[in-house]
Amino acid sequence: MARNREPILKRCKALGISPMVMGISKETKRNAQDNRRRRKDSEYGLQLKEKQKVKFIYGMLEKPFRKYFEIAAKTEGVAGENLLSMLETRLDNVVFRMGLAMTRREARLLVVHGHFDVNGARVDIPSYRVAEGDVISLRDKSKNSVKFKEIIESTKGRIVPLWIDMNKENSSCTISRLPNREDIDYEVEEHLIVELYSK
Asked: Which of 10, 18, 131, 163 is the most buried (most CB within 10 A)?
């Protein structure tokens, strides 16, 4: 399985995003604006950067990301917003949003190890797309794990999105609705991704 091993803080600086988006509380001491003052990005450069930013946030490689875009473009509505909504409903992202993983990378690993049920059935595919009404829960064996107790303690202050109806006592949630553009909590100009792929 291909993996991105690039240091998170270094990549965040290059893409101009806050490490908080990735679930990391560290801040880089370097000034991310320095490189921007030296040169002006071309139109293609801006489009490519937006695509790389979204791919990096969700931990995706080019081939699956492009497949998501092709599905989003065929779906009714705005292609860019459809794409972001589809990425948000990936199981690994939902686990991260629930506060049951420190980062999306960790969420992906926990899903692969089979710690979560969707509608009562074990699912170990990080790219599994949840639907409205789905119930995602931490498996009973995992609830008593020291690892999960530490994660839950350290993510207490994390804000759960409005489209996730969280039950913290049972470490489970219900997808009350599909996410929309207003639910995206990081800066992204998705129309640039659409323009890039439409060339």
From this structure: 163
